[in-house]
Design goal:
The protein is α+β, with helices and mostly antiparallel strands. The protein contains eleven helices and 23 strands. Helix 9 (416-425) runs parallel beside helix 11 (468-485). It starts with a helix and ends with a helix.
């Protein structure tokens, strides 16, 4: 009877904490160098680029948070963020299988995998053209990353420590809207703003930085999570392995706080943004020249300046017992329907480019082959949709409450308007989003109706599988989960 009563007490404590009581916060962390041992194809462009050397290391960043009551874990979340362009289902399957072998009792619904969206890292699935036997295939890359990262996850789960936590809202100009609008309503990605028909930028810039700080019980900073609503694609056209501005951020954090402080980079929703300047280019270049900085270090300077500035302020609200709640849902949203006209255009393009690639000396490596594959995916989508009256797309969403802060994830390059809607209606004190997380299917961009009306890359059905209606459903589901945690 005594054993039964003790068990019932533990169950009661677990349920009580899940229903929003504060609990002791524990943290495990790891930073894993996943730089490849051989040349790799780089993801993020249509033409084949083979990295012969590393410009910087690329990393997997691991942060495991647990809420504990009397030694029992009541909830947890495991973040794994990779310096890659985006994840693929093949990679997710390989990674999850490896994790299941290493940690068979771990609940993988608690895993959040995401990408920093650097365009100068491994291809995890795109069929780039190369006849070089020394270049790692996507299957080899997927296995290599899983076998490097999973042991570090196991290690960090066995070396977790009690910690303190606080958060802050900083501001840094990093993300710039990349879609120009012209008189008449046409939008163009990276269009020329000096054109006499230039009207405005399609969306506003998001300068918010969500900063999560973790101290040990002695008050020393041991980890910081930094959510920047901007893809890491400053040097996206380079042909060497590079973590983009996140490398410079890590170096500055190490200089400011010490080399043992872990950095968890998170890419906030920014499907219509990038770090590339379209406005004030000459003025920005002048200031960088006067500072003696390149673009990468200027971005890092702005980010880390906020990390430094906000830390002593936020430290006043540091807590060791916090509410940690995590939920995951998979919702079905409507697919964007491919029109007969788009289907016929894509089919003609695919046939022409496949034939051109077959006949070309480079077999389409300069971009024709992958462009053909891209068009063929639209053809396949149209044909699949003919067998369903209302085709849907499975969308995984994670929501995390940690103290008074909320994080909501999505698997798309989500246009910034959707993130603003979540932030505006959230009951959390501070809310942030993370894109390109937890892929089940490749969804690519998720644009607004304004972007679709404007057209151009990112605003046509060639660029997205889910449209504004599905985007709003993601908004509503995220808010339902967030606000349910703050009732």
């Amino acid at each position: 009877m005594k054993i039964i009563l003790q068990s019932l007490c533990i169950v009661f404590l677990l349920v009580l904490c899940r229903n929003s009581s504060a609990a002791e916060l524990w943290l495990g962390k790891a930073t894993v160098d996943i730089s490849p041992p051989r040349p790799v194809c780089l993801q993020g462009q249509f033409h084949t680029r083979i990295a012969e050397e590393n410009g910087t290391p690329v990393y997997a960043s691991v942060l495991n948070l647990q809420a504990r009551v009397e030694g029992q874990t009541t909830d947890e979340v495991l973040f794994v963020t990779l310096d890659v362009c985006f994840l693929t289902k093949k990679f997710m399957d390989v990674f999850r299988d490896e994790l299941a072998r290493a940690l068979p009792d771990f609940d993988q619904t608690k895993l959040i995998l995401s990408a920093t969206h650097t365009h100068t890292s491994f291809s995890l699935g795109d069929p780039y053209v190369t006849d070089r036997a020394d270049v790692m295939t996507p299957d080899e890359v997927n296995r290599f990353i899983a076998e490097k990262v999973v042991p570090k996850i196991v290690e960090c789960r066995t070396t977790m420590v009690p910690c303190q936590y606080t958060y802050a809202l900083g501001h840094a100009s990093v993300a710039q809207c990349r879609r120009t609008v012209y008189f008449g309503g046409e939008s163009v990605m990276y269009g020329n703003p000096k054109d006499e028909n230039f009207d405005t930028m399609e969306a506003g810039d998001d300068s918010d930085l969500s900063l999560l700080y973790f101290d040990d019980r002695q008050g020393n900073l041991i980890a910081v999570a930094i959510d920047v609503p901007c893809p890491a694609q400053t040097v996206e056209g380079w042909s060497l392995l590079h973590a983009d501005f996140w490398h410079n951020v890590r170096m500055r954090i190490a200089k400011c706080f010490g080399p043992d402080v872990a950095v968890l980079p998170l890419c906030g929703s920014a499907g219509d943004a990038s770090p590339h300047l379209l406005l004030n280019k000459s003025a920005e270049e002048r200031m960088r020249t006067l500072r003696g900085l390149d673009e990468l270090d200027e971005i890092a300077r702005r980010i880390v300046r906020e990390v430094e500035d906000c830390y002593p302020i936020a430290k006043k609200a540091m807590e060791s017992d916090v509410i940690l709640r995590h939920e995951r849902a998979v919702i079905s949203v409507p697919q964007a329907l491919v029109s007969k006209q788009a289907y016929e255009e894509a089919k003609a393009n695919a046939e022409r480019l496949f034939k051109k690639s077959q006949d070309a000396p480079d077999h389409g490596a300069r971009g024709d082959y992958l462009t053909a594959v891209w068009n063929q995916s639209v053809v396949d989508r149209y044909e699949q949709q003919q067998g369903s009256e209302h085709p849907t797309f499975a969308v995984p969403i994670h929501v995390l409450r940690i103290g008074d802060l909320a994080i909501a994830t999505n698997p798309f390059e989500l246009y910034s308007d959707f993130a603003r809607r979540i932030k505006a209606r959230s009951n959390a004190v501070q809310t942030t989003t993370v894109q390109l997380a937890d892929f089940e299917e490749i969804g690519c961009y998720l644009p607004t109706q304004r972007a679709i009306s404007g057209g151009s890359y990112g605003g046509t059905v060639f660029s997205f599988s889910v449209g504004p209606e599905g985007g709003q459903q993601i908004v509503e589901q995220s808010l339902k989960m967030i606000n349910g945690m703050f009732e």
